[in-house]
Design goal:
This protein is of the alpha+beta class and 98 residues long. 67% of the residues lie in helices and 14% in strands. The chain has 2 helices and 2 strands, in the order ββαα. Strands 1-2 form a two-stranded antiparallel sheet. Helix 1 (25-45) crosses helix 2 (51-95). The longest helix is centred in the last third of the chain and has 45 residues, at 51-95.
């Protein structure tokens, strides 16, 4: 069993100490960096000074991307299923299977 790692992440001018598995470090650091970059972008492009509002906008942005990927994947799965069904019907008709 691997040792737990203690790290500190800075998000919106606050430091968050975390104890994590070493395998999570890279992902968490990248996520914190992405949040910081998006927060700065929102602060520069919109007249938003309240950090809570900025973080809420970041959360909404990231959550909507995840939801959209799920929707896109579901639509892709449905299309693939329909194509497989049509292919199955074609093969069965050529083989004389009903």
């Amino acid at each position: 069993m691997s040792e737990r790692l203690k790290i500190k992440l800075s998000i919106a001018e606050r430091v968050y100490p975390l104890t994590i598995d070493p395998s999570q470090e890279e992902g968490l650091r990248k996520a914190a960096k992405n949040i910081e970059q998006l927060a700065k972008k929102f602060e520069q492009n919109y007249a938003v000074r309240d950090k809570q509002d900025v973080l809420a906008m970041c959360a909404l942005q990231f959550a909507s991307k995840i939801e959209q990927k799920g929707i896109d994947q579901s639509e892709g799965n449905q299309e693939a299923t329909e194509r497989l069904r049509a292919l199955d019907e074609l093969v069965n008709s050529k083989l004389g299977i009903k």
